[in-house]
Amino acid sequence: MTQPATRTRVRGSALQRWPDLVTVPRAPVRGLGVRLLLTRAARRLGVRVELPDGSVLAPAPEGAPVLRLRDPDAFLQRVATGGLIGFGESYQAQEWDSPDLVAVLTVLAGAMPSLVPARLQWLRRWFTARQPADQYGSPDNARRNVAAHYDLSNELFALFLDPTLTYSSAVFELDHAGRPHAGWELLEAAQRRKIDRLLDLAGVGPGSEVLEIGTGWGELALRAADRGARVVTLTLSAEQQVLARRRIAAAGHADRVDVRLCDYRDATGQYDAVVSVEMVEAVGRAHWPAYFGVLDRLLAPGGRVALQAITMPHDRMLASERTFTWIQKYIFPGGLLPSVEAVEEVLAEHTRLRLTGQQAYGAHYAETLRLWRERFTERADEVELLGFDQVFRRMWTLYLGYSEAGFRSGYLDVRQLLLTRPGESR
Questions:
Q1: Residue 85 — φ and ψ, nearest 5°?
Q2: Mean pLDDT, residues 252-265 taken together
Q3: pLDDT reported for residue 135
Q4: What are the residues facing 235 on neighbouring strands?
Q5: Which domains does the chain have, with CATH numbers?
Q6: pTM of the predicted protein model
Q7: Is the Cα torsion angle 402, 406, 412, 415 positive or negative in sign?
Q8: Residue 224 CB: number of other CB atoms within 10 A?
Q9: I need a labelling partner for 130 at 20 to 30 A (CA). Which of 38, 165, 192, 298 fits?
């Protein structure tokens, strides 16, 4: 039974800017159930859940990750009524915290399929929200979805990205143990290494006609132009288009790169190579046939498609594809991470393309996100000066930490995928 909501600790301007944080919904019976599930999970996973009086929900081993409940009742009520959305909103509202956020989230991400006991999984459909229709990836919705994230502020992204302004996984060199050798001073080179590998995969060289879907701030188009290619690059972000054009002109490539404000569905022409970095995640499953169909339609005979895509296990994709998540609500409206199996199914059913090569870089993305998160935290005062309040900063800290945890736990991966038409040559 749900009872009237109570006010939370969020005050001031946040009451207007973050309406869903103003009150804590009340569901006492479900809240008790969440407390039992949390106690069980803490004991099983070895997480130390601390209460305000210093006591713990369950014994935990020394050195265990700490989840510190500042307002246990509000936390339990939010999770009881909102699930993982409530979990995230409770962090935004400062109702819980952790001295090592990523450590806690990594443990939870690794146990995601079993956090709710199997005998209770059937209850998910009654308590999980469905993605709003206005987020589905139609042309009009796609523009709004992109603007909600990428048009926040070019200055914001510049505060925590490296000088290439590349907002996707880097590829670092490996150390003697086969792990990514990562550091802030290495990030710029690692981003260029990632782009070069993707361009190599697509066979981009002098005279290549290249289509890029998802411009970002223009670094991939710049590097393709440096190779002697001619590039048409598409974006739905007006902010990104302006800065990408400025960077391309400054590099002397305005005659080789055309930055268009254009939906992928409206693209025309024939291209030797089609490349796209971490854009398919924003398309939405209902539109995957159209997206991959466009790649097939625009690719010249014998051409190559090279994609970089964040992926998740197929069973987890199926379990979450109809669920409205905290990431969709606050960070990436309309998004859904594909599985490799789903990509192969869509290709086989709707295109002549086939997946003919792939390479995974999940550990590299974990390190990329760590560097971004640390930089974002270090420059919090500058983020505030841009007009982003404390709730926003906590929201983005959670987003970056949550994403990092997904890759550290293996719940998420990132892959460079090669799509070709078998038997076809230039």
A1: -65, -45
A2: 97
A3: 56
A4: 261
A5: 3-128 (no CATH), 134-420 (3.40.50.150)
A6: 0.92
A7: positive
A8: 28
A9: 38
